[in-house]
Amino acid sequence: MGPPSGKTIIPLFMYSIATTAIVYQNYIFVAFLFKRYRAYEWLCKGGSDKMGGDFFVCKEQENCIQFLLVSGLIIQFISGSIGSILINVFSKKKYVSRVAFAFLFAGWTLLSVALSYSKHYMEGYSKVGTSGASPDSLGTHHDVFQTISLLFTLAFACFGIGSDNSYLPIIYYVNENYPVEQGEGTRKSGDPAKDSSDPANESQHAESANHPGESKLGALKKMLKNKNYILISTMSSLAVLSLFVGNVLLALLNAFKGENNITVVVSMYILVCIVPAFFIANLLDEGRGKTTDDNVAISQQITPNTKSTQLWGQIDLDALKNQVKSPFYQFIVVEFFTITFSICYFMFSLFDIYEHSVFGDTLNVYSLVLPSSFIITLTFGIIADIISIYNFISFNLILGISVFSLTWVYYKTASVFVGYLSLIIYFFHQSFFANHMYMYMSTVFREHNFAVLIGIINAFASVAFFLSFKSFEYIKYYGGPVHSQVLIQIVILSYVLLFLFHIFNIKRKAASGQFMTTKSSASEVTQNNI
Q: Which segments carry the region annotation Disordered (predicted)?
């Protein structure tokens, strides 16, 4: 029995991403889970600031959960960068992916064990504390709690290592096997092969002007043929949908009552989702013959007087240097860094803003609605080929400016309406978090050095996550409202500067095709992929 066909492979990848990708990033799900099993509640002593909300018992507990999540995210981006390089070195995506799923298996196992022991020993600790037990027995509990804390740390480290490295190889598979078509969206980006001075092209423009309805229909047909955008957008949206798995797990925990229900539910999840995804990863290197032939054809296009340095398998060092120097790449690195910082900061601010009684059960409802943002991710990703990826990025930057402008107004006025409006726009903005970057990279840089370039972007994003968390932590516990407003203003200014640079530099160069030429003697491989 041979391997599945291409039509079967893609749905299997969809199942893998939709059930495993970024489940642990559902911040509200994690907060619910940790409070339910009394994780880190032993830190909430008599002098602690009791919070009394639906998510945290005290600030110490909140700090630990935030630290775990941010640590996992930072490890996720760093390990994703390393995994991207390893994929190029060994030219085998399935090995990286299978190791990643092994880490996800370990992470969920450690988490279930830690949560089970956390609740068990915390209940015993509460009884011991109220009965006036000896210091030795209390010390024994403290040793156990340190072990449980270590298990939590290891679990989220495993999630971090496994998340991107199980998800990104599928994106790389799509980009290699379904490259961006030289269609309408590409010509908008400045494809010199379809220069407007071409008489044949001029006649096509004239015909399109005389038949606008047919032109739109033709654009729609080209969009539907561009499998790269559709599939990358689909995979990115399904990664968002995986947040829904957290809600399903909570529902199952409510359905299955018992002391060890967390172990039973997580075991079911591993058996139904993680294990099949591990074997699905074997299909990542199917269809590589086409990609290999393409790489050979591209290498034959290099001019004889230009040397191309191959570093560690598929990595072309000369091309990589030229790509990294490109303003198009430098822009997306800074843009993704800024969006990562801002989205992470707003995510942590959710509890400070929407836990107030005036917002009622807003966060509970938001946790249920959040996974549905995959519909928005999918829809806008598909139409990006018609509106062009550059207009799509402009729109996303405008959303970012709107979110934080409204957040700044909220801090000034405490208006409930403004608070709701900023959350709604944030819902859209975070929906485009990753897929806009993947589509931009697949459009501008094609498949050449794609994984390495994504890895570099992720490395900078990990720094953004760390800075965002430390900024939030400092402002919350050592700063004040003024510091928060200043940071929001800095974020807004950063978005505005990125938007202006994108409009007046990146889009103009893309429209004129200036990025097709380089000042240095770069290889034609690079010029064909920038």
A: 183-214
| Amino acid sitting at position 313 | G
pLDDT tens figures, 420-458: 898 888 888 887 777 788 888 888 887 677 778 888 898
**Full DSSP string of 425-486:** HHHHHHHTTTHHHHHHHHHHTTTTTHHHHHHHHHHHHHHHHHHHHHHHHHHHHT--HHHHHH
Give the per-residue pLDDT at 295. Answer: 44
Compute CA 118 distance to the chain's CA centroid, rounded to the nearest angstrom. Answer: 30
Phi, psi of 21 (to 5 degrees): -60, -70
What are the phi and psi torsion angles at 454 (to 5°)? -65, -40
Residue appearing with tokens 């998800």: 167
Looking at residue 10, what is its pLDDT? 86
Q: So what's the pLDDT on residue 188?
A: 42
DSSP state of 98: H
Alpha helices in 91-134 (DSSP H): 93-131
Homologous superfamily assigned to 23-183+218-289+310-529: MFS general substrate transporter like domains (1.20.1250.20)
Virtual CA dihedral for 20, 22, 24, 28, nearest 10 degrees? -120
Q: How would you classify residue 195: left for phi > 0, otherwise alpha for psi between -120 and 50, otherwise beta?
A: beta
Strand, coil or helix: what is 308? coil
The residues of the chain scoring below 50 in pLDDT are: 1, 135, 183-212, 288-308, 516-530
What's the CA gap between 223 and 45, in Å, rounded? Answer: 59
pTM: 0.74
| Closest to 25 (Cα-Cα) out of 71, 84, 83 | 71
Q: Around Cβ 73, how many Cβ atoms within 10 Å?
A: 28
The SS3 call for residue 168 is helix
